Amino acid sequence: METASQATVLDQEANHHESNKGAFMVLALLFFMWGFITCLNDILIPYLKAVFELSYFQAMLVQFAFFGAYFVGSVVYFIVSSSIGDPIAKMGYKNGIILGLVISATGCALFVPAAAYHVYAFFLGALFCLGIGLTVLQIAANPYVAILGKPENASSRLNLAQGFNSFGYTIAPAIGGYLIFSFFGGEGVIGSDALKVPYLGLSALFLLLAFCVKLYSLPNLTEGQHIEKGLAVLRYRHLVLGIIAIFMYVGGEVTVGSLLVNFFGLPEIAGLNEHEASAYLSLFWGGAMIGRFLGAISLSDMQDSRKMKIMVGTAAATLLVIYLVTYLNTGISFLEIWPFVLFIFLNLFAFKLGQSKAHRTLAVFSVSVMVLLALVVTTTGAVAFWCVIAIGLFNSIMWSNVFTLAIRGLGKHTSQASSLLVMAILGGALVPLAQGALADIAGVQLSFALPIICYAYLCYYGVSGYKIRSSDFAQKGES
């Protein structure tokens, strides 16, 4: 009888594991899609800047509209959740994801009338709508991945999901750059018309994904959960400091990525045209993909003796994919990207220093980016060029590590806390705007000194800010 009972338990665990595995695969596709669509902003900025003859500050309104939507959407979500209870807890993660996909599809479709009327403000409105949709996706999907398994492996799981997000970022510059600048934006195409077909296609993809998610049976992780109201979630110190950390991370990452095409075009750096520069964005975002896949391995419960071998093999395989994407757009030989290979080895060494601990790895990587940014500002040519590309490698694990460190132990407050963390994506709206203004005044290269402030705070969070204060949980007798 005991043996039969044990067998039943094992069968249930196996089925639960398979269910979680299938759900993760569906979510990985979602992470890929919003990575792809977000990185297209880096192509839109130089394109719209040329079409509408904008200043750097005006061009950065692309990021302001897009990431500002995260702030507005998250504030509304938090107000609703604190007043009547958490919407995601009520509707379920699955319905929350479907809602986010439908809104995102609408935002993409709005690019068609925006291009038809050729009004910059209309494009900003479409980006805002798209950002609202991705806000809902972020609020639902990030905590869902984090709690879809063992708590101790949450950072590993989210890093793996973010790896697919980075894959979207990696191929978006190559595909988007080709479609917008060459295929649909070739000779004879007027102004913003090149944006119609690509974004209409993306709208259709989002709707198809929503239909697929509707048909797929995702595990219900909110069933029986108490619907929490009020502002009690703000008493947790590690969450509040984590909100600031997300602001700094997204602000730092987005502002670096946003000006890369212009930075690569500087005569003293590389003198690349927009199409060539957009292809090199694949190396920057590809570095984040490598780092996130490595982070998933490093922060897992895998035996330490196997980790480094698997990490090296994963880095080599992922680098091959990134090189092929870059080669198809530039025709460069592998020997021309050898500095990037060197930075991958430095990234592996940084993981070693991180000792498979989320907070320690965050601190080590933050210091690494600060050093790289200092070199970007103070050098020229190949050194500055490859240092700025290498930042992607060290940005890699920051979102996942901060997010999982910030929601540790929050239980019924998790979705509400997630909305606050997503609200902090506002950093992606404000920091690029500030750097754009600085670029207009002091030049593009010197403007890269600004994000150093962001990474200094991230280092603090990895050293001290992440720590849980037991008194926060004792206030209501929580364990």
Automatic annotation (TrEMBL):
Keywords from the UniProt entry: Cell membrane, Membrane, Transmembrane, Transmembrane helix
Gene3D superfamilies: MFS general substrate transporter like domains (1.20.1250.20)
SUPFAM superfamilies for this protein: MFS general substrate transporter
Localization (cell): Cell inner membrane
GO molecular function: transmembrane transporter activity
The keyword Membrane appears for this protein: yes
Gene Ontology cellular component terms for the protein in this record: plasma membrane
Family matches, as InterPro entries: MFS (IPR011701), MFS_trans_sf (IPR036259), MFS_TsgA-like (IPR050375)
Topological relation to the membrane, as annotated: Multi-pass membrane protein
Database matches in Pfam families: MFS_1 (PF07690)
Parts of the chain that traverse the membrane: 24-48, 60-80, 92-114, 120-145, 166-185, 197-218, 239-265, 277-298, 310-328, 334-351, 358-377, 383-407, 419-438, 444-463
Official protein name in the record: Sugar MFS transporter
